[in-house]
Write the structure tokens for this entry.
Amino acid sequence: MARPTLAQDIERRVKDLILDRALGPGDPLPTEPELMELFAAGRVSVREALKALQAMNVVEIRRGFGTFVGSLSLTPFAEGLAFRAVVRHGRGEPGLLELMKVREALETGLVDAVSAGIPAEDLAVLWSLVATMEAEAARDGRVARSTDRAFHLALYASLDNHLLSEVLDAFWAAMDRVRASTDDGHQDPATTCRQHHEIVVAVAAGDGARAAAAVRAHFDGIRTRLERDPARAVARG
């Protein structure tokens, strides 16, 4: 295994510093000269490390103001997922199918917990989004991706798990990025509306098994198309 470069070692030490000082997003970090002194490193290595950490949203460099702990968002993770899937999809490999299966496993595994006690206000949001889907389907002949995405995020909101919400949204962002490169225009708005309606009915009834089956059925169409023709199929919500 190759030894880490000096810049990579500084990356690790900056992360350790954030943890040791219990810093959070937006908190100031030592200045560049202070980091150079703290790590006994040159300016070039420190800057290289900070730029790499900025690309991962670990730090944020504000010109003229200093360096701060970054947002720690999963955007780079989503971009990595998307790029991997696009490259493999373009080579006729099952990159998109793999991405879809991971997302399906997450959603079907969690919807039972949602069904155990979803708050009335969250249920109202889901019904409202289904109504929006139906209106979009009737008006535009398609369901907007933003509405579909909002539905799946709202479905798991009651679990009150910020990391889960970010991970699910990262998968959405990745699949949208893949779609931009491979979209074949396929869409069945009536099926989309019916499937989302069935999910809400099951969740509202507190029937976890039925809800999981409804979520799984929601993925059946894209799974079948991807397994049959991975070079042409496109992810649907």
Q: What stands out?
A: The mean pLDDT is 87. The beta strands are 59-62, 66-69. The longest strand covers residues 59-62.
